[in-house]
Write a structure and sequence with these properties.
The chain is mainly alpha-helical. It contains 4 helices and 2 strands; from the N terminus they run ββαααα.
């Protein structure tokens, strides 16, 4: 478990074990919320392209690669910084990470 620091006025102190545990708990909740958002977006994007997987529709290699990249998100993106990149949006609210861009 990491040991965090806190600053009181100009003095930097080590956090107590209880404070460290509380910080870890808050960080875990934030990470879980981000992961839940990513899973929801991923499911939505896969559902939007499910019709390509029907046997009577020919799926392009680009679409197949796109769908595989979506399925690979859990193994390819594992840190909170990577979650932030996946959830980044532009001024219009559009997701900016390339993994979300349909071919």
């Amino acid at each position: 478990m990491p040991s965090y620091k806190k600053q009181i006025d100009d003095v930097v102190l080590d956090c107590t074990p209880e404070e460290n545990a509380e910080i870890d708990e808050r960080r875990a909740k934030i990470k879980d919320n981000k992961l839940a958002d990513i899973k929801e977006l991923r499911l939505q994007k896969l559902q939007e392209t499910d019709f390509y997987a029907l046997s009577d529709v020919t799926m392009s290699s680009e679409m197949s690669t796109y769908r595989q990249a979506l399925r690979d998100i859990p193994q390819d993106y594992t840190t909170e910084d990577e979650y932030d990149l996946l959830l980044a949006r532009d001024e219009q609210g559009n997701l900016t990470h390339s993994v979300w861009s349909k071919p």
